[in-house]
Design goal:
alpha/beta; TIM Barrel; Hypothetical protein af1432; about 50% helix
Length: about 425
């Protein structure tokens, strides 16, 4: 392994979606952190390390976005001055994000003007109405306003102040649908936060017949006991699932030497456990609709693969790799289905420790959900604490998360090609 590969393996990369008002995905913010050790100590030249991470991380993620989507990338002061984006990141995709601690000094403003001349879109991060940032606002194309913990009167005051500028407003750290709707009413066009990953339970809402069938099938592959003929009949009764499953089975991901021509053949050749794992992924993806649903499916599938990989590297107590996979896969089931988690899990034959973690109770399984949530929120401090307190390998976590992201993207691409 060369030095570049070692470096690539030792950084954390998180992506957070940015939505339009209609929930279509505008793009993603990429968040990076070097993970040389569990406490994230800086190594060598911080700016050189950041440049390497941004270049490599951007390249890895850029392959997975669709045409027209953008990627927000954070730039510290020195990298702005060195015009690190130029020649390294394409201006038609990369949005240069000015970090909140950067000050509008003359040399910084001149560097930003040069970036704009080169065709880059500029975004100002974490704006909360601070004085003296008018030179940044005049140059920026996007202003990110942090909503978490901010009162509605303050938000209204900030948006009124920004209304005289020709900028697009992005509401960040939007944590619930009420704040999403309030910000939309104020004129925000872009939204970032975890409002889309929280359940919205509507009393009296009924599950569609299609999703009821999916839940029944999901139940049939979530236990240990199965009958090949029964499972074959169940899958064959759903044309969409049958088609999608066979496409998965014959994809390069499986690497099977012979073409699979029937569901029964797939069950016999692959074995129930492997087939059931992939089928759960397909079922979950199929129950999702719309851009937000697709993003939730991606998160669920990525979590499942990440935890499965972590099980191979760590002593997870009595939790098997399959249990860890289920833990991640079902962790957003309540959001996807619009029903309480307790109600959904009562219909699935999964072990008690997973039920406890999925319903918010403390236990040995809850650590792993805390780990994936810290990653997705780019809570590097919290992630570092979890790593240190549980004697985990930062390198293992970084590698496995990156591998899980790539695997989830492959699954997502196969689904899009249906």
């Amino acid at each position: 392994m060369n030095d570049s590969e070692i470096f690539l393996d030792s950084f954390f990369v998180a992506r957070q979606p940015v939505f339009h008002t209609d929930w279509a995905i505008w793009g993603y913010e990429l968040l990076f952190r070097n993970s040389e050790d569990s406490r994230f100590a800086d190594i060598g030249d911080e700016d050189a390390a950041t440049s390497q991470v941004i270049a490599d991380g951007f390249g890895l993620i850029q392959e997975d976005i669709i045409e027209g989507q953008r990627l927000l990338v954070n730039f510290p002061r020195n990298m702005l001055l060195e015009e690190a984006a130029a020649g390294m990141l394409p201006p038609e995709v990369c949005v240069v994000e000015i970090l909140e601690h950067v000050q509008p000094e003359p040399d910084v403003l001149e560097a930003l003007k040069q970036l704009k001349k080169s065709g880059y879109t500029l975004a100002l991060d974490d704006y909360v109405g601070q004085k003296g940032f008018e030179p940044f606002i005049e140059l920026a194309d996007i202003i990110k306003v942090e909503c978490l913990g901010m009162g509605r009167d303050k938000l209204t005051q900030i948006t009124n102040k920004l209304s005289k500028y020709d900028v697009t407003l992005l509401a960040e750290k939007v944590e619930d649908s009420d704040m999403f709707n309030f910000c939309k009413g104020l004129g925000f066009e872009l939204f970032q936060g975890f409002f889309f990953s929280r359940p919205e339970i509507i009393p009296g809402k009924k599950m569609s017949t299609n999703n009821m069938n999916r839940m029944q099938l999901l139940k049939s592959v979530s236990g240990d006991n199965f009958d090949v003929d029964d499972l074959t009949r169940t899958i064959n009764s759903d044309v969409s699932i049958s088609y999608r499953l066979l496409r998965f089975m014959n994809s390069p991901t499986f690497g099977l030497p012979n073409t699979i021509n029937s569901i029964q053949q797939a069950i016999v050749l692959l074995g129930y456990k492997k087939l059931a794992g992939w089928l759960r992924v397909i079922l979950l993806s199929d129950m999702c609709s719309g851009p937000a649903g697709n993003e939730l499916a991606f998160l669920s599938i990525k979590r499942a693969k990440f935890l499965e990989l972590m099980a191979a590297d760590n002593n997870c107590g009595f939790l098997s790799a399959e249990s860890m996979f289920l833990l991640g896969l079902f962790s957003l089931l309540d959001v996807l289905m619009g029903r309480p988690m307790e109600e959904l899990l009562a219909e699935l034959p999964i072990e008690d420790e997973l039920v406890k973690a999925l319903t918010g109770e403390d236990g040995c399984a809850s650590l792993w959900l805390d780990l994936v949530r810290a990653f997705e929120k780019a809570d590097w401090t919290g992630l570092g604490t979890l790593i240190a307190e549980n004697n985990l390998s930062a390198l293992s976590i970084a590698r496995n998360h990156l591998a899980a992201m790539q695997w989830a993207n492959e699954v997502a691409l196969l689904n899009k090609q249906e």
